[in-house]
Each structure stands twice: as C-alpha cells, then as structure tokens.
Amino acid sequence: MSAQPSSMTDLDVTDPLVGRTVDDRFEVLGRLAGRTASRARLYMAVQRPLDRRVVLKILPGVGFHGGARRRFLREASVASRL
C-alpha cells in the first residue's frame, strides 16, 4: 500500500470520485498517486460517523470471485490489523 500523504495537498482532488460518499459511510477526500499491482486505485477517505481516516482500495471492474476474492479478503484482514 501507498504511504499516507504528508498533507492534503499530496492528494489528487480532480478524480470524479472525490467528494462523493461510498457505501453510505466513506467520504472520499482525494486519490493517492499511483496504482497497485492489481490496477486498483487508492483513495484517502473519512469513515463516517467515526471520523476515522482510512484508505479505500477501489478495484477495476473485473470478476470478484475465487482466488481474487480470497486474496482481497486476506489483504483487508492484514491491513486492518496495522
């Protein structure tokens, strides 16, 4: 995963997802630079109503089953422990 930006000015705020709410609880603040190995996009967001900063990983429109699903869930589990 990408390191947390040192300030909000390190985020790309021109992405169309910025300013929107995902899953009725994640307010997208900006996109982090680069992509992951899976071509996913990473966004800095605030989880509401907890006011907790999180990184959202948005996967490209590909099938989400089998091995890809297991890898994603394992990665999410490990990342949540950090």
Protein topology:
Blueprint: E1 21-22, E2 26-31, E3 41-47, E4 52-58, H1 66-80
Describe this structure in words.
This protein has one helix at 66-80; strands spanning 21-22, 26-31, 41-47, 52-58. With 82 residues, the protein is α+β, with helices and mostly antiparallel strands. Strand 1 and strand 2 (26-31) form a beta hairpin. The radius of gyration is 13 Å and the shape is globular.
The shape is globular
Question: Average pLDDT, to the nearest integer?
Answer: 80
Order of helices and strands: EEEEH
Going across the biggest sheet, name each strand in turn: 1-2-3-4
Q: How far do the termini sit from each other? A: 12 Å
| Helical residue percent band | 10-25%
As an assembly, this protein is single chain
Tally the beta strands.
Answer: 4
Number of helices: 1
**Rg value:** 13 Å
Structural class: alpha+beta
Low-confidence stretches: 1-7
> Largest sheet, if any?
4 strands, antiparallel
Q: Assess the beta-strand content as a share of residues.
A: 25-35%
Any key phrases for this structure?
disordered N terminus, alpha+beta, 18% helix, 82 residues, single chain, four-stranded antiparallel sheet, globular, 4 strands
What's a quick, concise take on this entry?
By secondary structure, this protein is of the alpha+beta class. The protein has 1 helix and 4 strands, in the order ββββα.
